[in-house]
UniProtKB/TrEMBL annotation:
Pfam families, sorted: Lactamase_B
Chain ranges of the Metallo-beta-lactamase domain: 34-245
Gene3D superfamilies tied to this protein: Ribonuclease Z/Hydroxyacylglutathione hydrolase-like (3.60.15.10), Winged helix-like DNA-binding domain superfamily/Winged helix DNA-binding domain (1.10.10.10)
InterPro entries: Metallo-B-lactamas (IPR001279), RibonucZ/Hydroxyglut_hydro (IPR036866), Sec-metab_biosynth-thioest (IPR050662), WH-like_DNA-bd_sf (IPR036388)
PANTHER family the UniProt entry points to: ENDORIBONUCLEASE LACTB2 (PTHR23131), METALLO-BETA-LACTAMASE SUPERFAMILY POTEIN (PTHR23131:SF4)
Coiled coil feature spans: none
Protein name, entry field: MBL fold metallo-hydrolase
Organism lineage: Bacteria, Bacillati, Actinomycetota, Actinomycetes, Streptosporangiales
Region spans: Disordered: 137-163
Amino acid sequence: MKSRRRPYAEQRPQDLGGGVWSVPVPIPGNPLGYTLVYAVDSPKGPVLVDAGWNHPDAWQALSGGLSALGLDVSAVSGVVVTHFHPDHAGLAGQVRQASGAWIAMHENDAALVRIMNEHTADEHDDFQSDMLRRAGADPGETRRARAPRPTPPVPPDRELRDGDLVELPGRKLRALHTPGHTPGHICLHLEDADRLFTGDHVLPDITPHIGIYPFDRDDVDPLGDFLDSLDRVGELGPLDALPAHEWIFPDVAARAAQIRHHHEEKLVRLRALLAQRPAPLTIWEVAAMMTWNRPWDELSPVLKGMAAGEAAAHLRALEARGQVRRVAGVDPVRFQALDS
């Protein structure tokens, strides 16, 4: 099926009806192109769902887009962030400066934002280098695969938990904790209109990155969390989905089921690949064996690092299911298939 994705230059602010608007905000240098920021009407001023990347062009697009819809960024009463990534949380601080708005996100992501703000860029580089080394990357790959750290988002004023209502007088906007893409990712159910703001959790044409950081953690299972979260979204039924990227689409439950099936098939293929190898493999070796949108050798070093994070999450999910094991006492960490 041909993708309906269109470049940012073809996007326009839209009145979606029912007191909901969307503003496309560019992401400089990113193939996703833009983040869809939503505004929801409120007697105290509009509440934004996400804010966009912290960049002058993005700020101009957000403030100008709101103005084109008859809204004023200085009147925004709140920003609820679906997750801490910079294309969602980056401009929240500037919106707060312009309007005095509160900022809210899930408590798990709020904790990560505090950690990010407490550490320097050099400490971030050291963390990445050691993580890549333990995954099995050679020294040259370790240097090249480090991603530059974006400016950390500002800490939120309010922390949300699963089931909390966002402050939106006259309406019901409920947080649904959907971890996986980040530990504190939330979808937001506009219950009075049967619409679901899905952030990056459920997108119409692509699937979000599900990684594990550090790669060799054995105390969390982000892919397992993500699959469980897809089931929770599916239980809401065929709601209209308002995602943070690509386009608005109907029947979020059907799309959630498709994404779950995609990952289950990926897990089956990965288990089969490991079963064919007599010796345990590093995370980096496993990532090189997996199927990506381009051949492994054509991926940039930074994308190889992201692929390793996703490979690690799939290995951890298989480990949690008792289908693979990690070899004890080796560095870099290695995994091996267990007999079925």
